[in-house]
Amino acid sequence: MSNTSDIYAYRFPEDDFYTSIFNDKSINAKVFTDIKTLLDKSIKENDVIFIYFTAFEDNIVDLLDILKRKHKKNPIVAIGERYSQEYLEGIFEHHYFTYLNIPCSREKIIETLLNAKNKDTFHKPDIDLEAELNNAQKKLIVLNNVAIALTTQKNIGHLLNFILTKTRHLLKADAGSLYLKEGEKNLRFVFTQNISTNWSGEKDILLEINDKSISGFTAKTGHTLNILDVYFVPPTFPFSFNQDFDKSTGYRTKSMITAPMYNKNGEIVGVIQLMNKRRDYEGCKKGIKLKEENIIPFNNEDVDLLNNFASQAAVALENAKLLYDLRRTFEGFVKASIVAIESKDPCTHGHSERVAELTVALAKKINDIREGTFAKLRFNEKELLQLRYASLLHDFGKVSVSDEVLTKSKKLYPYELENLIARYKFIKKSIETDYYKNCYDYISKNGYDKFLSVKQEMENNFNKQINEIENAINTLVKSNEPTVLEEDSSNKISELAKSEYTDGDGNKTAYLTERESKALSVKRGSLTEQERLEIESHVKYSYDYLSKIPWGKDLARVPEIAYAHHEKLNGKGYPKHSVEKDIPIESQMMGIADIFDALTAQDRPYKPALPLKKALDILSKEAENNALNKELVDIFEKYEVYKCLEEKN
Ligand SMILES: [Fe+2]
Ligand SMILES: [Fe+2]
Which of the two ends of the chain, N or C, has the fewest CB atoms closer than 10 A to its terminal CB? Predict the structure, then answer.
């Protein structure tokens, strides 16, 4: 059998030493220099493949692929100066393989090659078919599970961590890094793990996609690289390994595999890189230094697995990114909606964001509570997001309320007050004119001497009238304030509403219009009944608007939660006058946040911000009146939930 086998020598230097070996009668090697020839040759099962080490260093992925597909049974003899039989056995695990260290004598080389022709005296792979099958099945199951798990991970950070952890487990790698493509020119180093240095975490370094770095090369060319020792990258490659991390930590990076992550369209979206396959992976412990003798190269199966996994991960990642982008678009839309609400009433700037912060902080606090009514109440991530959106948009309906009502700070609109004062100035002037006219008429009719006898009386009468008008103006200006209306003022307003003066055209006109007397008669606050109803209608508009958005299953309750933010437990809220059992707990929480912010907001010119203590007292009072949920108010106060706003600033 051995007599019929040939020796194929691949990528040897053209020097006398090797030429004399290849020309030796017992060897008579066929020499070739490129991998394509090796692939094309009709190599027989017993032919020996003799490789010079630069060949398998340069093209280990391609070489392993060819050996696996075409020459699985061929004996392989490799000669090199850097590795050992032990280090490389894993790579050629299914081959008859032996390794010769340079320097090596001519005789030793010839003897090894002749032995290789006769496989009996050669290193035999230890193949346990049953164990192989079991192992392959196990890997398939793991790969399958991982593929399923990949589709369920929606959070990009968790997904990156998951991808790296699983690939490391599958390939028994000590360390790994993940890079994501950013635009056409850059790769972002986003995540790294390392068992033996106990180091893992997010990274944020931007690399250029070019030939200079290993990951950049893979991103640029789409080639999977399997490097035996990164400290000795073959000179045929344009990149080199950056040893900075090793130097600063004492770590030794040796074997490395780097694969591109292809999406469904065949575009590269990232790069996975694993370092140092471990012989002792199963028993290894975190943070314990990795001994160099436990590092082995990645083999052909690893290349296949990583390529397969990288593409699945790429698809999962793209899906997660799509979701993330969608969410970002939606967040942008929500933010734009808030700008629309707050541009209607600049005085409430930041209100929606603060209500969202406070409400979500309250929900998170409830998640920590293990006693009382809320011991079992929990809000998961989706529910917290739902609550956040409901809070951010709770007042959106204000876009449908007229600006002047929304920003109304006094009982009369500014232009109404101006009109009113101008009217009273006119009345004053009319009284004055009347007075002088009366004086003149009297003198003309009765003479100046007689006039002197009534002058004082006429003057007193005039002054009285002027005083009355001035008092009326003062009362009206005072009544215009949104504070509690005094009874005297109320009576005065009724009286003025009934009084009349003669206008410039000689028409009898009321001192106060119906609208003015109604507005100024408001007992407390600045709004008439009609205006109050208009403001309250914002809840209904919020609901109508939010109901038009297809929120999807997870966020379906956003409209419902926002709708009830002005309801009170005692039924005195609006718009439905619901009672406790009918008000979603989320709306009850939001109601507290909403009132708290309205009381403490710094930016309302018509209303000074209340000190914290006073605001909390008001909340407690509202809870005592069964307007607000007492337990929620207690939690809000006891755990200083409102401090989340300070943290935010
Ligand atoms: Fe509201
Ligand atoms: Fe609000």
Answer: C
CATH of domain 130-321: 3.30.450.40
**pLDDT tens, position by position, 261-293:** 999 899 999 999 999 999 999 888 888 889 999
Q: Which CATH architecture has domain 345-404+534-648?
A: Orthogonal Bundle (1.10)
The yes or no reply on domain 7-127 and CATH 3.40.50.2300 is yes
CA–centroid distance, 135 to ligand 1, in Å, is: 62
- Mind giving me the DSSP string for 165-180? HHHHHHHTEEEEEEEE
Domain residue extents for the chain: 7-127, 130-321, 345-404+534-648, 416-526
User: In the structure, what pLDDT confidence band is assigned to residue 327 with cuts at 50, 70 and 90?
Assistant: confident
Tell me the CA–centroid distance for residue 479 and ligand 2, in Å.
27
Phi, psi of 192 (to 5 degrees): -145, 150
Q: Are strands 76-80 and 30-32 parallel, antiparallel or unpaired?
A: unpaired
Percent of residues, the chain, with pLDDT higher than 90: 57
For the CA of 598, the nearest ligand: 2
Å from CA of 351 to ligand 2 middle: 7
Per-residue pLDDT of 215-244, as tens digits, reads: 999 999 999 999 999 999 988 899 999 998
Between the CA of 587 and the centroid of ligand 1 the distance, in Å, is: 11
pTM comes to 0.63
Report pLDDT for 202: 63
CA of 566 from ligand 1 middle (Å) equals 6
Ligand 1 center–CA 394 separation, angstroms: 6
Q: Which bound ligand lies closest to the C-alpha atom of 352?
A: 2
Q: What is the DSSP string of 444-478?
A: HHH-HHHHHHHHHHHHHHHHHHHHHHHHHHHHHHH
